[in-house]
């Protein structure tokens, strides 16, 4: 069976529901449905469960065929990702398939192999999954910056946009433009957030007040940040939206010399939340993920780390956004681009906490995974409000101590 498909809708479907309570048995049956020869050919089938994620069940199947190198065996491995129960309220699965299919076509994602009733199968990317401390290593974050610049510079948002635009005159949602002239692709960062807030319960006075407060915050930040001008007039780009450490893989490729260090290319996995969005959000979100799942707020990047990251990002964005069809030479000011993005990321630094705080409130209702989503929501929303009180000056006026994340963010 070929690894690549022309359309996500043409992807082979295996009528099987993965049982998260019995992942090994489910994974074995699924791989044998996909490739019956795995059952009869010589070589042990090894199943490995990854435990880094807090949304899905992820299993890897490896066929240890004799006479093959370890890299060949790994390259032929299959990943099975079973969706968390109820996550359709959070994720548009058709959009995810479109995003994955485009990325795979361009060599930026592992090939899709098949889908099953509650998940996807795709080829394994040999390499190692980053930890949150890895993200702070220069040889890692330089490569992340280059890859992210490629995504934002080269990928068309048309592949994941349901309709071309929203018009403020016909759609008065807070994520729509407010001046009646500018337009935003749909869906986008703001529409996703609005859908999540809409899904929150209102069964108690406390829940109703919380939902009202979150809606008011979304109206405010969407108006302030939603039309932030992007490089080359690209206000919305193809964003990953979830560039945490577990979604960054250091691949088994040739090292490239960079002074005294060796750097290997990285690739990004898991495209559940890929949608059009502001580049500054995607970058700020990645910086927030330097803190890891435990929200170690003193681990976010400093000013100098952010500047170095952006230097590599801008160079890659410019390289990958140049088209052979460009008929007019544009004078590029890299330093100005870096400063512009630096200031924009500064303004967006609270948004990841808002985004994932709302997400965690929904997960607290639906997830069966053993994870304290309520506490996680509080931690992430605290990042947003720490940013807000610095931005409006209320923290300083009241003489309170600066949040540890803000202290670290403003350090050199």
What do these coordinates show?
With 412 residues, the chain is of the alpha+beta class. It has two domains: 12-124, Phosphorylase Kinase, domain 1, CATH 3.30.200.20; 129-409, Alpha-Beta Complex (Aminoglycoside 3'-phosphotransferase, Chain: A, domain 2). 42% of the residues lie in helices and 15% in strands. Strand 2 and strand 3 form a beta hairpin. The protein is globular, with a radius of gyration of 22 Å. The protein starts with 12 loop residues before the first strand and ends with a helix. The model is unreliable at 1-5 and 164-181 (pLDDT under 50).
Short structural summary:
Helix content is 42%, strand content 15%.
Fourth-tier CATH superfamily name of the largest domain: Aminoglycoside phosphotransferase (APH), C-terminal lobe
Approximate shape: globular
Instruction: Indicate how many domains the architecture comprises.
Output: 2
Give the helix level as a range of percent: 40-55%
- Main beta sheet strand tally, sense and closure: 6 strands, mixed
Distance between the termini: 53 Å
Instruction: Using the CA coordinates, give the radius of gyration.
Output: 22 Å
InterPro entries: Kinase-like_dom_sf
Pathway: Phospholipid metabolism; phosphatidylethanolamine biosynthesis; phosphatidylethanolamine from ethanolamine: step 1/3
Organism: Zasmidium cellare ATCC 36951
EC number: 2.7.1.82
Question: Keywords, please?
Answer:
412 residues, alpha+beta, Phosphorylase Kinase, domain 1, Aminoglycoside 3'-phosphotransferase, Chain: A, domain 2, 2 domains, 6-stranded mixed sheet, 3-stranded antiparallel sheet, 14 helices, globular, disordered N terminus, EC 2.7.1.82, ethanolamine kinase
């Amino acid at each position: 069976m070929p690894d690549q498909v022309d359309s996500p809708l043409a992807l082979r479907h295996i009528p099987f529901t993965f049982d998260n309570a019995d992942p090994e048995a489910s994974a074995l049956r699924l791989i044998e449905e996909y490739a019956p020869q795995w059952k009869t050919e010589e070589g042990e089938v090894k199943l490995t469960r990854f435990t880094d994620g807090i949304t899905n069940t992820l299993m890897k199947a490896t066929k240890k065929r004799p006479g093959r190198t370890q890299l060949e065996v790994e390259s032929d491995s299959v990943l099975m990702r079973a969706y968390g129960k109820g996550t359709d309220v959070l994720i548009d699965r058709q959009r995810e398939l479109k995003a994955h299919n485009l990325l795979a076509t361009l060599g930026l994602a592992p090939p899709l192999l098949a889908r099953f009733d509650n998940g996807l199968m795709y080829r394994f990317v040999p390499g190692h999954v980053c930890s949150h401390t890895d993200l702070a290593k220069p040889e890692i974050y330089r490569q992340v910056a280059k890859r992210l610049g490629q995504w934002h510079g080269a990928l068309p948002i048309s592949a994941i946009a349901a309709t071309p635009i929203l018009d403020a005159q016909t759609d008065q949602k807070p994520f729509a433009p407010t001046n009646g002239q500018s337009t935003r692709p749909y869906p986008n960062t703001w529409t996703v957030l609005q859908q999540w807030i809409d899904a929150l319960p209102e069964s108690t006075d406390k829940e109703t007040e919380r939902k009202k407060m979150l809606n008011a915050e979304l109206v405010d930040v969407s108006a302030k940040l939603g039309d932030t001008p992007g490089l080359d007039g690209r206000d919305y780009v193809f964003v990953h939206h979830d560039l945490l450490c577990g979604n960054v893989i250091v691949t088994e490729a040739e090292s490239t010399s960079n002074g005294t260090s060796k750097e290997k290319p990285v690739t990004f996995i898991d495209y559940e939340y890929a949608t059009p969005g502001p580049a500054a959000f995607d970058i700020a979100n990645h910086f927030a993920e330097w803190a890891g799942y435990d929200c170690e707020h003193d681990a976010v990047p400093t000013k100098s780390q952010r500047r170095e990251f952006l230097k590599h990002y801008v160079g890659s964005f410019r390289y990958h956004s140049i088209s052979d069809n460009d008929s007019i030479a544009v004078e590029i000011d890299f330093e100005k681009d870096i400063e512009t993005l630096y200031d924009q990321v500064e303004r967006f630094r609270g948004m990841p906490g808002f985004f994932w705080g709302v997400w965690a409130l929904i997960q607290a209702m639906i997830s069966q995974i053993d994870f304290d989503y309520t506490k996680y929501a509080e931690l992430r929303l605290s990042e947003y409000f720490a940013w807000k009180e610095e931005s409006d000056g209320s923290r300083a006026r009241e003489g309170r101590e600066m949040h540890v994340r803000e202290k670290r963010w403003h350090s050199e």
